[in-house]
Amino acid sequence: MKFQTSKKVxxxxxxxxxxxxxxxxxxxxxxxxRWEFLREVYSIPQPWKTGDSFNRNKIVWFIALxxxxxxxxxxxxxxxxxxxxxxLINTETLLLNDITRKPSDCSLMCEGVxxxxxxxxxxxxxxxxxxxxxxxxxxxxxxxKNWSAVGKFSFxxxxxxYAKNKEAAEENPDLGCIFFPYGSGFNSLxxxxxxxxxxxxxxxxxxxxxxxxxxxxVRDELxxxxxxxxxxxxxxxxxxxxxxxxxxxxxxxxxxxxMVQRPSWQAQLSGQKIWTLVPPPECEHVCRSLQVTVxxxxxxxxxxxxxxHSTKVVPTGELSITIGAEYD
Length: 328
What we know:
alpha+beta, eight-stranded mixed beta sheet
């Protein structure tokens, strides 16, 4: 026996389908559907900016939304929908952690921030006092300039490195070894590193990829060419995983939140990337979106668990290559 509400579910899916088609025709990204949904979930009615009402409102949403997702799943399973049809929204862009995360402290992370500051010669003391754990974004302009990784890391470098360590190119989510295809069409890092020379040199279909390395042999080899950034305190760890992102001009990562344990830093080793930072919806009443260009030798520090962010590779004639890690 079918749920009596299956008809309404079909109508809802129809509405999303119409919205998707309109978005495609207008050039609007389908990911914006997700963003508008999140804005509604986290938007703060003016009388509830502070106090118990605000907290109760959030608690209700945290309980209701996961339940809604589960119930809707049962409805869909029992409907006559064509599950072989393309998804309306890419599942990479709609994650449960987006709607169940803890609301951010707006006054600490972004209130009054008009732009991402660019600082040189940043001391460990100043980093800890102002930026390390406040979630306020920051660019350190000279932190990676003396690394041999700048100019050394290239597509060919990674191709040779993983050719010698074939198992390290395999995805293993249980260990945190993850590959991000970002619409490139590649299913794994191994497959991506086998692309033709024409495409690798950006003379074929555009591509942008990312991956997290957790192989100790590869990690030791990579860290011959870079070290823990000098502004990170001596007693702080930067994590065992290296996060690497590489690609040519055009869109990089779409707007998203990360699911990592700690704040992170990312060094631009080649090329340039434009970062768009969007405060979480509960902070839109006091904070603004930011955009900043990260150039070769710069390190950006960002709490990607709180700031929605996307990237775009600038056409400079160089492949954009970045490496980063978390810190505690």
